[in-house]
Amino acid sequence: AATTNTTWTLTVAQDATGVRTMNWDTTVFKFQGAVVPVCTTNASAIDVFTLTSSPVTAGKVFVTWNPDFR
């Protein structure tokens, strides 16, 4: 079992066409304000997600979102 916080960075980049989507399992991933983020669908858009878990989160992963980097 984990004894420290674990953090990952997930970078999602759209191709030249864009319009790609992704889904989150809300039983595992938890979001600020309980609002599930929707990826930016513009062509060449980049969204950055930070995922954090710890021994006290009981299998939940907390997600923060920075949309539409350019």
- Report the biggest beta sheet as strand number plus sense, adding barrel if it closes: 4 strands, mixed
> What is the share of helical residues?
under 10%
The class by helix and strand makeup works out as: mainly beta
Strand segment count: 4
The strands making up the biggest β-sheet line up spatially as 1-3-4-2
Per the principal axes of the C-alpha atoms, what is the gross shape? elongated
Series of secondary-structure elements, N-terminal to C-terminal: EEEE
Taken as a percent bin, the fraction of beta residues is: 35-45%
Regions with little confidence, pLDDT below 50 for 5+ residues: none
Q: Mean pLDDT, nearest integer?
A: 90
Number of helices: 0
Alpha carbon gyration radius: 13 Å
Query: Termini distance?
Result: 38 Å
Sum this structure up briefly:
By secondary structure, this protein is an all-beta fold. The protein has no helices and four strands. Strands 1-3-4-2 form a four-stranded mixed β-sheet, with no helix packed on it.
How would the blueprint of this fold be written?
Elements: E1 6-13, E2 29-31, E3 46-53, E4 61-69
Parallel strand pairs: 2-4
Antiparallel strand pairs: 1-3, 3-4
If you had to describe this structure to a student in words, what would you say it looks like?
It is a single chain. Helices cover 0% and strands 40% of the residues. The chain has strands at 6-13, 29-31, 46-53, 61-69. A four-stranded mixed β-sheet has the order 1-3-4-2, with no helix packed on it.
